[in-house]
User: What shape does this take?
Amino acid sequence: MIIWIDGPCGVGKTTVARKVKDLLSDNEVEFLDSDCYFQKMFKEKVEEAKKSNSCPAIRGMSPQTNTDFAVYFRELIKEKLSKTWVIIAMALTDEICKKHIFHSLCSTHKNVLHIILTAKEETIKSRIESHNGRGDKTKHINELGNSVSFLDKNFNGALKINTDNRSVNEIASEILENIQRFEKQV
Assistant: This one.
């Protein structure tokens, strides 16, 4: 099973996904944070370029827009799925990740629970401002409207969970209830 925790930057995807993983048995699920894997891939490309005294070939500066990362992350997810459930924290806010990762996986794996975390714009902006060391805050705030719009236009079938004025435990508990319902349907 794939449990995809989606939403714009700052909504709480990673925090909620980690909590859901903690609430599930470690033997049942592995957590994949796209940002961590993207940073790893980015560093590896820079190191390779240094060794060959060349410029790194980086096609897209975020997990959502990098075609190399899309292929890499999709294959990583497939590999992990052969052994366990996977919880993914990744914003599907660009056509590249939607097509090359999400739709590709949905075409081969029917048990994908897609959850989009939502919140009021002011809430998300406040969360972005409070992030320490998590990228360019101004860029994330400026992209917020486009990210929300993309999610709304492209993923009508996703389960939406509002995170305003709710604890991580409350949100994770709601997700667990939905996982149980989803398992009965599949």
About this structure: The helical segments are 13-23, 34-51, 67-81, 95-108, 121-130, 137-154, 168-185. The CA atoms of residues 118 and 162 lie 5 Å apart. Strands lie at 2-6, 29-33, 85-89, 112-118, 159-162. The mean pLDDT is 91.
